[in-house]
Design goal:
125 residues, mainly alpha, 66% helix, flat
Length: 125
């Protein structure tokens, strides 16, 4: 059991953190004032009185834009990392292979981009 000795401080911090959270909640529930009214029971919407239903359908266009952002964001990170590795001399013939892989990746990316463009995912009404 001597191998668990380094983990004792982590366990103590975890116990203190959980104890602090539970203790704070208990003390505030015991000592805090309770004056419920209709204004406190309403859903908070930036100080405005809520109108309409809470479950509103959001158009799929927002999700498409978010997915396109993630796609092109990840593409940028991959290209930057690829360029960093591509500059370094290493295994003979690696640069030719890496260039071919990047050309293949860019072809797939351009085909996906053209597909999204033709489907109208980039048009904002």
């Amino acid at each position: 059991m001597d191998y668990l000795h380094p983990y004792i401080p982590i366990l103590l911090i975890l116990v203190v953190a959980i104890g602090f959270g539970v203790g704070t909640l208990l003390i505030s529930s015991l000592l805090g004032p309770r004056r419920p009214n209709t204004a406190k029971m309403l859903a908070y919407e930036c100080g405005n009185i809520p109108d309409g239903e809470a479950n509103v359908r959001i158009p799929i266009k927002f999700y498409l834009v978010a997915l396109l952002f993630l796609l092109f964001d990840m593409e940028t990170v991959l290209i930057l990392m690829w360029a960093n590795v591509f500059r370094q001399p290493g295994i003979p013939g690696f640069q030719i292979y890496a260039f071919g892989v990047m050309v293949f990746f860019m072809i797939i990316l351009i085909v996906g981009f053209l597909y999204e463009w033709r489907k109208g995912a980039l048009k904002w009404n």
